[in-house]
Amino acid sequence: MQRLLSVANSRLLEVHRRAGQQAVVNCSFAAKPDFQRQDLVCYDPDDSFIHYSLEISMLIFRTRVLAFLFSSVLAIQPSTAQNMNLQPKYGVLSKNDAQKSADAKFIASIDDYYKGDRKKGSEDVSMRGWQFLRQGNSLEAMKRFNQAWLLDNANGNALWGMAAIQAGSGRIDESLKLFSEAEGLLGNDIDFSVDYAKALGIAGAQAKNETLLKDAFARFAGLYEKAPQHTLNLQNWAITSFYIGNYAEAWKAVKLAEA
């Protein structure tokens, strides 16, 4: 592990050295909130927090190349396309010839870089979207999730990211539709399930919708049975219970989290 950290720090410093920059970088291991595995997290002043998987041999180079590909495609799109870029699945709107041409060039560049493995390209693009989302940049995140979806419309992580952004923006109905679609692709991902249950709880509490609340609480309980130590699920359970005035149930969830 320590050798891996040393390699990561050295490679980031080398990137800056070649660019004629001086920088302080720091890498450590941390669990990602949305995936159950340890990730390498590096603070790089050029890119802010960057999450790399343990397969780091090519990821620094890959991140730089992908960033160039993304920015190039977005730069050649007309400004009228930007609103489409910021809506899930591009707003499901028809694209003009220029936009279709830009999409084709982007897909071709990804196919070339990933030797035709478009699913892998889509996975990496969606990971970049999650990086932006954790940094609080939901606009750039949505662009990446859309690009990932364009490459592979069965990319559950891209749909999840869109759903998370919609939920965070208060567009609950749109969020739940995306969560529902993603569930068929990510149903076994415990962190996705926790996030989906939270969205259902928020929607049910805000709308005072008993059907949604019943679904949310059933999911909270089911997730507790599967992963009793998943404190975020217990936190969501407690907050939703408190929000609807069920203080006894909220306190019960808090005590479970403390156990």
SSE order and pairing:
Blueprint: H1 2-18, E1 26-31, E2 38-44, E3 48-52, H2 59-76, H3 82-85, H4 97-113, H5 118-134, H6 138-151, H7 156-168, H8 172-186, H9 190-207, H10 210-226, H11 231-243, H12 247-258
Antiparallel strand pairs: 1-2, 2-3
Helix pairs in contact: 2-4, 5-6, 5-7, 6-7, 7-8, 8-9, 9-10, 9-11, 10-11, 11-12
Descriptive notes:
It is a single chain. About 70% of the residues lie in helices and about 5% in strands. It is mainly alpha-helical and about 260 residues long. Strands 1-2-3 form a three-stranded antiparallel sheet, covered by helices on one side. Strand 2 and strand 3 form a beta hairpin. It is elongated, with a radius of gyration of 20 Å.
Q: Can you give keywords for this protein?
A:
three-stranded antiparallel β-sheet, elongated, single chain, 259 residues
Strand content: 5-15%
Structural class: mainly alpha
DSSP summary: helix tally: 12
Tell me the distance between the termini. 31 Å
Q: What low-confidence regions span 5 or more consecutive residues with pLDDT below 50?
A: 1-5, 11-76
Computed CA radius of gyration, to the nearest angstrom = 20 Å
- Overall average pLDDT: 78
Overall geometry comes to elongated
What does the main sheet amount to? 3 strands, antiparallel
Oligomer: single chain
How much helix, percentage-wise, in residues? 55-70%
- The strand count comes to 3
Spatial order of the strands forming the largest sheet: 1-2-3
SSE run: HEEEHHHHHHHHHHH
